[in-house]
Design goal:
- The structure holds two protein chains of two kinds.
- By secondary structure, chain A is an all-alpha fold.
- Chain A is 63% helix and 0% strand.
- Chain B has a domain of 205 residues.
- Chain B contains 22 helices and two strands.
- A two-stranded antiparallel ribbon of chain B has the order 1-2.
- The termini of chain B are close together.
- The chains are: A mainly alpha, B mainly alpha.
- At the A-B interface, α2 and α3 of A face α6, α7 and α10 of B.
- Chain B: It is found in: Cell membrane; Membrane.
- Chain B: GO terms for molecular function: NADH dehydrogenase (ubiquinone) activity.
- Chain B: This is Na+/H+ antiporter subunit D.
- Chain B: It holds the Pfam family Proton_antipo_M.
Chain lengths: 115, 502
């Protein structure tokens, strides 16, 4: 499972970087969405994937039996998803406002503050 | 229970929440904001005193003993940074009394400001790497909203760059945390340091170290990904620019100091050599960028970049004296840079623009303001006996002692070029005659209106701090030395955090 996930994560990063390098601000935001999801999947993969081992302790026991999945990465990913959702909601509103004010979606025409 | 570690986070959050509840009452929000900032300064001094007493102050959230719960840790560096946060909060709160326009206040200026302060204080105090990410995001989302208050054309352009680069940095940071968790299986920074000391896969550790370097380097506006800063900082309301200039990039520098002294100290030859060249190029590009500019706040923004280089240089040399220099530099820089931005706000109030070519004649009309500008400006350039001289002197001396000749030479040259930029501002804004056709009614009005006097208060206070550090630097040097001792002895930090519950 890990090799497939590694390839998926790599593809997501590549797609995200490609989208961020495009001129359109909409594609830029799509790139940001992809890269945050790629990071989440990376946490999921690198923390180790365990099938069929829910982190539960049987009734009466003190320790769980056998190999169990680590629940912490899932909590991290959940937190990161929520944060990314909030931030991206802001980014979407920002590009909408930016488009309304600047009347362009081309990043090449947003250089007034650079000179 | 060490309540003083949690209070610098709780107080701004509470102040911000109260400001949201009183959304419609601008005057009450202003007063609340000032009171909240004063309270923040108060508890941060309390924290500093207990850190001087105990060395490390640790608090386990919900009493989950490390490494399982989230731990708040204050060592000397954190405490110094939190005190500076409190000082800047007070200065900005006073300045905002007069500078914040009602349209900004209507869209949540004060709640956002305090949310930002909570994020900054949280980043300084957390002992958990994922929690650090969360505080970074808290700080970022507040700064995004503050930056675009007003919704002008330049602000939109600046914000697109600011948001993109900072989100990219967050994604890299998050990925690095994921990989680090894969190796160590823990998030507590002290525990990570212990586990990495025993890790076998050192190649992977180096990769993760570089990812952290890139992520924090973007936040700190270090070379090569610094360009979001001069593209965005000069677009926001001036009090916001001043707060960002003082605090936000320094959070990135703080994170670099924390991570590259505590966690990634196994392969110093590789990581700190990289940091060294990053520092040198940051100094150089920043100061050369500033030389080409003719907009007051843009020049100052580029100088933030070049000064960040000095701080990273202190970390990169990694000798006790260099770390002292780095910490000293951070203290000096936060005060001076915020002050310069505030002064640019006053000149804007007087003459209505930031363009050097359209400004002028301030020395003749307002000599007191001109002297107030000279104190931080000459301090930034490193003229004795002001604070910047001692900060630069310590760093350059440590560079000479470490025989890092090229980097030391660059640091000296950059000091000279900084002086050039400051002289440029002085001669254009203060010394030369006001160009014809400029409205000078606010400038030459005989009596100073009270709204202007309020703007002067924080500038005078910060200038006095600069003078104090310059004329009586020993106590400040002692604090920096204390923190350098702690930073170079991570075992004490680890023992304090993992040493069990209180």
């Amino acid at each position: 499972m890990e090799p497939i996930m590694a390839i998926v994560v790599g593809l997501l990063y590549a797609a995200a970087i490609y989208m961020m390098l495009r001129r359109s601000i909409v594609k830029l935001v799509i790139g940001l969405m992809l890269i945050s999801n790629a990071a989440n999947l990376l946490i999921f993969t690198s923390a180790g994937m365990t099938r069929g081992g829910p982190p539960l302790i049987p009734e009466g026991a003190v320790l769980p039996e056998g190999v169990i999945a680590d629940p912490l990465p899932q909590a991290l990913i959940l937190t990161a998803i929520v944060i990314a959702f909030g931030v991206l909601a802001f980014a979407v509103v920002l590009i909408h406002r930016a488009y309304n004010i600047l009347r362009t979606d081309n990043l090449d025409q947003m250089k007034d503050t650079d000179t | 229970m060490s309540l003083e570690v949690a209070l610098p986070i709780i107080i701004p959050l509470m102040t911000g929440t109260l400001c949201v509840m009183l959304w419609r009452y601008n005057v009450i929000q202003r007063v609340l904001s000032l009171l909240g900032s004063l309270a923040l300064l108060g508890v941060s001094i309390w924290l500093l005193i207990s850190v001087i007493d105990q060395g490390h102050v640790v608090m386990y959230m919900g009493n989950w003993v490390a490494p399982f719960g989230i731990t708040l840790v204050a060592d000397m560096l954190s405490a110094i940074m939190v005190v500076l946060t409190g000082m800047m909060a007070v200065a900005i709160a006073i300045f905002s009394l007069s500078s914040a326009s009602p349209s900004h206040e209507r869209f949540g200026y004060y709640p956002l400001m305090h949310l930002l302060l909570a994020g900054v204080a949280g980043s300084f105090l957390t002992g958990d790497i994922f929690n650090l990410y969360v505080w970074f995001e808290v700080m970022l989302i507040a700064s995004f909203a503050l930056l675009i208050l007003g919704g002008e054309r330049a602000q939109m352009e600046g914000a697109v760059k600011y948001v993109t680069l900072n989100l990219l940095s967050s994604a890299i940071f998050l990925s690095a945390i994921g990989l680090l968790y894969g190796i160590t299986g823990t998030l507590n920074m002290a525990d990570i340091a212990v586990k990495l000391g025993a890790a076998e896969n050192t190649g992977m550790v180096d990769v993760i170290a570089v990812m952290f370097m890139v992520a924090f380097g973007i936040k700190a506006a270090a070379f090569p990904l610094f360009f979001w800063l001069p593209a965005s900082y000069h677009t926001g309301p001036v009090a916001v620019s001043a707060l960002f200039a003082g605090l936000l990039t320094k959070v990135g520098v703080y994170a670099l100091f924390r991570v590259f002294t505590l966690i990634f100290n196994q392969n110093v030859d590789f990581t700190h050599e990289l940091l060294l060249w990053m520092a040198a190029l940051t100094m150089l590009t920043g100061v050369l960028g500033a030389a080409a500019q003719f907009e007051f706040r843009r020049i100052l923004s580029f100088h933030i970049v070049s000064q960040i280089g000095y701080m990273i240089l202190g970390l990169a040399l990694f000798t006790p004296l260099a770390i002292i220099g780095g910490v000293f530099y951070i203290m000096h820089h936060i005060i001076v840079k915020t002050n310069l931005f505030l002064i640019s706000g006053i000149t804007h109030r007087l003459l209505g623009c930031y363009d050097l070519k359209k400004l002028g004649g301030i020395y003749k009309a307002r000599p007191f303001l001109s002297i107030l500008f000279l104190i931080p400006a000459l301090s930034l350039a490193g003229i004795p006996p002001l604070s910047g001289f001692f900060a630069k002197f310590i760093i350059i001396r440590s560079g000479v002692e470490a025989s890092a000749w090229v980097v030391t030479g660059i640091a000296l040259l950059v000091g000279l070029l900084t002086l050039y930029s400051m002289i440029k501002i002085w001669s254009e804004v203060f010394w030369k005659k006001l160009p014809k056709g400029q409205d000078d009614t606010a400038l030459t009005a005989g009596k100073t209106p009270s709204s202007l006097v309020i703007l002067y208060i924080p500038v005078v206070l910060l200038a006095l701090c600069t003078l104090y550090i310059g004329l009586n630097g020993q106590p400040i040097y002692d604090l920096a030395e204390f923190s350098a001792r702690q930073l170079l002895n991570p075992q004490a930090y680890i023992d304090a955090v993992l040493g069990g519950g209180s």
